[in-house]
Amino acid sequence: MPRPDLTDQPSEWLIEPRKISHYLLNETHQAGGPKARYFIRFGFSPADPNRLAFALLEHPTKGDLVRDETSSAGDRKLIFEGPIQSPDGRAPRVRTVWSVRPDGHARFVTAVPLTRG
């Protein structure tokens, strides 16, 4: 099965800062804690949340688009998988999910560590 192509590119990629500081880099967050520990292992830090935000913003251009789906309600989601550049020089694999709004802007939904494959 061929990989999807991103022919209708979002005009802008946006990440809510709280998603990084209060969720993806918060080790005490009930749902985000395991993700925070994963990212921190690769050198990302709660003291510098922008570093992870920038790595995630680059992911749609460096990762592989694995799904471009539109729900029956018209909501479009883009799902990418691949490595991100980490502060310690390694390239951990993640899945990022983006919601594309009608104005063409893609909003970051979440990042999921890919620990296999």
Q: In short, what is this structure?
A:
This protein is an alpha+beta fold and 117 residues long.
What descriptors fit this protein?
globular, 26% helix, 117 residues, five-stranded mixed β-sheet, 3 helices, alpha+beta
Describe the protein.
This protein is an alpha+beta fold and 117 residues long. The chain is built from three helices and five strands, in the order βαααββββ. The chain starts with 11 loop residues before the first strand and ends with a strand. The model has no long low-confidence stretch (mean pLDDT 91).
Number of helices: 3
Catalogue the unreliable spans: none
Helix proportion: 25-40%
What is the succession of H and E elements?
EHHHEEEE
Give the N-to-C terminal Cα separation. Answer: 18 Å
The main β sheet shows up as: 5 strands, mixed
Would you spell out the secondary-structure blueprint of this structure?
Layout: E1 12-14, H1 17-24, H2 33-41, H3 49-62, E2 64-70, E3 76-83, E4 93-100, E5 105-113
Parallel strand pairs: 1-5
Antiparallel strand pairs: 2-3, 3-4, 4-5
